Each structure stands twice: as C-alpha cells, then as structure tokens.
Amino acid sequence: MYLNKVQLYGNLTRDPEVRALPSGQQVVTFGMATNRSFKDKSGAQKDQTEFHNIVAFGRLAEVMGQYLKKGRPVYVEGRLQTRSWESEGQKKYRTEIVVDNFQFGADGGRGAGGGAPKAAKGGDDFDAPKSEKGEEIAYPEEDINPEDIPF
C-alpha cells in the first residue's frame, strides 16, 4: 500500500488566483507558509519558514478563492503532485499540494487580516445562508433543550 498525504497549517502568502480550465472547472492557486521553531546546537532559538504551492479544483476552488485572503491562516489536507513542462529548451518542475479538504484558520483572523465564515467560527463577514427559493433561512432564537432530542 502506498500513501501520499499532506497536512499543513499556515498562512497564505498571496491572495488566491481563481481561473477556469478549458473544461469549465474552476482552479485556484496560492502560496502558503509554514513555520518551525527549534534550538540549534548552541541552544539558540531558530525559526525556519517553508513555502508551499497550493492548488484546488472545483467547488473547493470557488470557496477558497472567495473567502481566503493573504495573511489568513488555513489548514489544508491533500496530496503532493509534481508537474513538469518545457520552457526555452529547459525542463522545469513544480511540486504542489493538491487540496482534498480544508478548514479556515482557528485564530478567526481578526488580528492577522483574516476572518472565518459563520459555519467555521461564527464570524459576521459573510451573507446568511439562502434557501432554495433565494430567501434567507430563519433560524430559531431559542437554545436547543437536550431533553427534546429523541435519542
């Protein structure tokens, strides 16, 4: 059995770029930075930053392009993929993380220029959900009583 799985939590280094493939499917690309702190041989604290190329397709691409912005934290799960092409007689390579799943960052982004949608963190940056007829969905104001749950 083989495994190609990547999990990253970091900040966007640039705004997502959304494009459409010739088939009409949406694709988004952006950069992401992850940090690592460690002590070197002399005991001094060191920070190391890694930069990653991220790509997502379809509905994920649409949502990521709409809500993510430079500097916001995000968690992505996916797989490594290396593409190659020829440019000016030289073979070029690019390794990317192809996203299967993602979550908005935990800090809510208020201090780092980010934000999270209502579904993820209760923020107020986004429109209320709409019903199939285009009307806003009205949620009850009262709390749910655990005794009312039938299981």
Write the SSE topology.
Elements: E1 6-12, E2 17-20, E3 26-39, E4 45-57, H1 58-67, E5 73-87, E6 90-104, H2 118-121
Parallel strand pairs: 4-6
Antiparallel strand pairs: 1-3, 1-5, 2-3, 3-4, 5-6
Name the descriptors.
151 residues; mainly beta; OB fold (Dihydrolipoamide Acetyltransferase, E2P); 5-stranded mixed barrel; 2 helices; 45% strand
Instruction: Name the poorly predicted regions.
Output: 109-126
Strand order across the largest sheet: 1-3-4-6-5
Order of helices and strands: EEEEHEEH
For the largest beta-sheet, the strand count, sense and barrel status come to: 5 strands, mixed, barrel
What's the helical proportion of residues?
A: under 10%
The end-to-end distance, rounded to whole angstroms, is: 40 Å
The CATH architecture designation is: Beta Barrel
Give me the CATH superfamily.
Answer: Nucleic acid-binding proteins
Task: Give the percentage of residues in beta strands.
Answer: over 45%
How many domains, in number, for the residues? 1
Q: Would you tell me the overall average pLDDT?
A: 81
Number of strands: 6
